């Protein structure tokens, strides 16, 4: 077949949350779009959380590639059915379909499992020329001639991230220069939290771009966008020496930017790194505290203590860096009191913004296997697997209680007191975020009766 026009679509989120106002596209679709554009294809990328797709382009494409996580899977499959009805082949990729390829093949022609930078170009070559054969493409799932699902062996992880091009966001329909600009400099994670699928998707070993390549990357993205940069690595400071080299390079090159990233609490043990972060324009560190319950931290296999969390907050704030704290509520070791204590901890501490997320057993994680085998999943309506809905039976409270208490905690943090406090100190960004968060929570609370009836019926 002849392939000239390709559309990438990142399926939209099922509902709003506290940070829906600042959508950050996942980089896979944009990176693959850039690679295929460089190979001579005409490519456009559509991120539904940013702008509605140009359907005239999509409907006249020779191939459509869909990207999905678990909470957007229903939307992705609906799009795939619609597009295939037009006779256009569909490829799906992303974490959800990597772990459930049989489900995906009910809606798509091909599934790219894991990292797609080698699998997708090989698939295009096979479709256009017959070489390589579909059966030889690692990381590919498809149906053979008799309709049976075929899952080729997984592809090897990409070793040299330096060789990947910088994703070109001009390919993203509706992209604005004011959008938060995502940057990736590493893949993988060795920690293995029970509810996280990073290891299964990207491996247990960290793979890094070199410090030199990362500085060049940051210099480039700062030239094309003055917006805040968000380094999407699961732990930017995983190799502290490399992180220090990068930030020293940013300062030496006089790259003036505002940026944020994700780290673990152990970043607080490196004062040199924190100083470099502050001096290079780090605005906020996003930290997965996960819990203040020591038993829950152990159950999550987090490898950190409550004392580590308290110390990290104190030390990081001393450098003038803001903190976004992420907590996961609903472990078997949690109770209603745990949730209320977590709210008090967040309010009394110096955490600037928070997310109280409900423990969610995502496909591909040890937690999912444990919940499924134990008969504890309430349903597999994937649109509810968004960390805002209870989809399993907790051990120490009812699903309805966990749902109510989590949203009460969110409302308790993003309160009028929070908004007025930040207005009084002219921290208008946080005041506005509080207003938006309060509105999003109130909207959910208005629908809470329906959500609870649905949850009660399912349980």
Overview features:
six-stranded parallel sheet, Rossmann fold, 40% helix, 18 helices, alpha/beta, TIM Barrel, 459 residues, seven-stranded mixed sheet, 2 domains
Short description:
The chain is α/β, with parallel strands linked by helices and 459 residues long. It has helices at residues 27-38, 55-58, 73-84, 95-99, 101-104, 119-129, 198-202, 211-224, 240-252, 271-279, 294-299, 306-318, 336-348, 366-373, 399-413, 416-424, 428-446, 448-458, and strands at 5-10, 42-47, 63-67, 90-93, 110-112, 140-143, 149-151, 181-183, 186-187, 207-208, 229-231, 259-263, 282-290, 322-329, 353-358. Strands 2-1-3-4-5-6-7 form a 7-stranded mixed sheet, sandwiched between helices.
Please give the alpha-carbon distance between the first and last residues.
49 Å
Full CATH superfamily name of the largest domain: Aldolase class I
* Structure annotation, total helices: 18
CATH fold-type name of the largest domain: TIM Barrel
């Amino acid at each position: 077949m002849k392939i000239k026009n390709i559309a990438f679509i990142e399926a939209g989120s099922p509902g709003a949350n506290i940070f829906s106002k600042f959508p950050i596209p996942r980089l896979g679709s944009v990176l693959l779009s850039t690679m295929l554009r460089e190979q001579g294809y005409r490519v456009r990328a559509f991120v539904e959380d940013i702008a509605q797709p140009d359907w005239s382009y999509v409907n006249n494409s020779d191939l459509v590639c869909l990207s999905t996580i678990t909470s957007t899977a229903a939307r992705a499959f609906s799009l795939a059915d619609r597009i295939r009805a037009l006779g256009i082949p569909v490829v799906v990729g992303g974490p959800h379909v990597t772990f459930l390829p049989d489900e995906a093949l009910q809606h798509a022609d091909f599934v790219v499992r894991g990292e797609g930078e080698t699998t997708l170009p090989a698939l295009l070559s096979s479709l256009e020329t017959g070489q390589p054969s579909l059966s030889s493409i690692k990381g590919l799932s498809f149906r053979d001639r008799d309709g049976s699902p075929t899952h080729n062996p997984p592809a090897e992880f990409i070793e040299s991230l330096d060789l990947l091009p910088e994703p070109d966001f001009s390919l993203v329909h509706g992209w604005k220069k004011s959008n938060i600009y995502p940057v990736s400099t590493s893949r993988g994670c060795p920690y293995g939290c029970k509810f996280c699928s990073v290891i299964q998707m990207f491996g247990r070993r960290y793979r890094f771009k070199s410090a030199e390549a990362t500085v060049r990357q940051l210099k480039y993205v700062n030239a094309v966008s003055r917006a805040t940069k968000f380094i999407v690595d699961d732990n930017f400071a995983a190799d502290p020496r490399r992180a220090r080299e990068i930030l020293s390079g940013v300062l030496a090159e006089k790259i003036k930017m505002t940026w944020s990233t994700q780290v673990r609490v152990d970043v607080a043990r490196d004062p040199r790194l924190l100083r470099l972060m502050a001096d290079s324009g780090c605005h906020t560190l996003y930290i997965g505290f996960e819990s203040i319950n020591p038993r829950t931290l152990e159950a999550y296999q987090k490898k950190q203590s409550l004392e580590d969390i308290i110390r990290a907050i104190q030390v990081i704030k001393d450098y003038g860096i803001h903190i976004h704290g992420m907590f996961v509520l609903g472990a078997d070791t949690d109770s209603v009191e745990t949730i209320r204590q977590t709210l008090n901890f967040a309010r009394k501490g110096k955490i600037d913004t928070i997310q109280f997320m409900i423990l969610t057993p995502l496909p591909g994680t040890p937690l999912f296997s444990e919940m499924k085998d134990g008969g504890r999943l309430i349903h597999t309506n994937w649109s509810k697997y968004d960390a805002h809905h209870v989809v399993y039976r907790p051990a120490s409270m009812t699903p309805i209680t966990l749902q109510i208490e989590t949203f009460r905690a969110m409302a308790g943090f993003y309160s009028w007191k929070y908004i007025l406090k930040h207005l009084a100190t002219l921290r208008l960004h946080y005041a506005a975020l509080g207003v938006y968060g309060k509105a999003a929570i109130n909207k959910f609370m208005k629908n809470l009766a329906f959500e609870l009836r649905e949850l009660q019926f399912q349980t």
